[in-house]
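Appendix C reproduces, verbatim, an entry submitted by the partner laboratory led by Prof. M.T., so that reviewers can inspect both the input and the predicted structure.
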Amino acid sequence: MTKAFMRQYYALIQWLLGSFVVVSSLLAWLDTRGPVDSLSIYDIFPPLGLIAFGLMWTHFVLGAVRRYAGYAKPAGDAYMSISMGLVLALIILHPGLLWLGLYRDGFGLPPGSYLMAYESQLLAVLLGSIGLTIFLAFELKRWFGQKAWWRYVEWAQIAGMAAIFVHAIQLGGELRQDWYTFVWWLYGVTLVVAIMYTAIHHTKRKGRNDAAKR
């Protein structure tokens, strides 16, 4: 795939990746669930987290693709606007439905409900909570995005992705499907590559800018 191809079909690549994330997550979910008429709230919330992570993965990967291809960030990017709004809704609904289910079943609210329902898996649950907190913090960008310290919040997104990645491996029933386990690890490997490439790109660009100022 050439750089010219990437620039020309960048929008199509965006929507294809996003569609792949949603469809593969739903297929993995359907493979591990019973008949639709027997679904409970505990069956509904898992795929929301899978889709949210996958869409955030596309943001990292597409950013690296755009930098590699030398494609300027498009103004009014429909995919980014829609997917970011969807991610925010999903990362709230994913734990929110779980909290509702646990509360309804007499476990109370977190952290007490986690201690009762996930006693042997508290580390995985904690990682999920850490990831949720980091991603929600990113929503403050509109107010604090220009602050010098904001770059630390952006770096924390990487830690949040790692936390959710492990969280899903430990708790996600969908990862019992061998094919979806492969997809999940594909997410992980390409995420690391995208982050490394983006870091190298920024370092080189900063070096060129510093040299130009001399």
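The domain at 3-109+118-213 is CATH 1.20.120 (Four Helix Bundle (Hemerythrin (Met), subunit A)). Additional entries are available on request from the coordinating office.
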